[in-house]
Amino acid sequence: MSSELNKNTDDFDKVLSARQQVYKKVNSILIFRPSNRSSLLLFYIKRLLKWFVFIAFIQLIAIVVNFLLKEPLLNEIKLTSGFSFLLSLIAVFRESKIEEIRIDTSKELLILEYGRFLFTNEQCVFSLNEVHLKTNYRCSVLKISGANRLDFNVSKQHGYLSEDLNNIVSIIKELKNKKEA
């Protein structure tokens, strides 16, 4: 009788130890318990970084979707330094409809009027389609050489010109006058 009881107890112990081993394996898979505090801190830092990367990826997707669906509302580009000009290039990476062209050389403010403004790498295209003239101004920025000057290469249908901002303003005024006449 006692031998049978011992056998049952041994069987029960075996089942219990096997069950405990299964629980330990499951817990080791589900819950990471490092041996010391430094590895625990490293584990949580890695987990936090993964969440940050995931959230940044979701925000990037949201920005791209918003960029593709939303009509651009850009109406001015400030050219105060090379860095802000680079930001302006990024801001108008896709075609934007602009309502006004005005160039104020003292404040280095460039606002486009009666046309569309498009940047492609380091080139900008003045497509003055609303002026109803068959002129495309292709200008590539050469340099930002001071507080009140910006050098452009302006090529027209009948020639290739290098102009400063004041001359570009006069060209635009001519186009406006021709449109209004």
Report on this model:
The protein folds into two domains: 68 residues; 104 residues, no CATH class. The chain is an alpha+beta fold. Strands 1, 2, 3, 4, 5, 6 and 7 form a seven-stranded antiparallel sheet that branches. The chain is built from four helices and seven strands. The N and C termini lie far apart (119 Å). The longest helix has 33 residues.
- The domain tally reads 2
- Helicity, as a percent range: 40-55%
Percentage of residues in strands: 25-35%
> Using DSSP, what is the number of strands?
7
Q: How many individual helices?
A: 4
- Order of SSEs: HHEHEEEEEEH
Radius of gyration: 34 Å
Distance between the terminal alpha carbons, to the nearest Å?
119 Å
Helix/strand-derived category reads alpha+beta
Shape type = rod-shaped
Give the averaged pLDDT, no decimals. 51
Largest sheet: 7 strands, antiparallel
The low-confidence parts are: 71-166
Transmembrane segments: 48-69
Keywords: Membrane, Transmembrane, Transmembrane helix
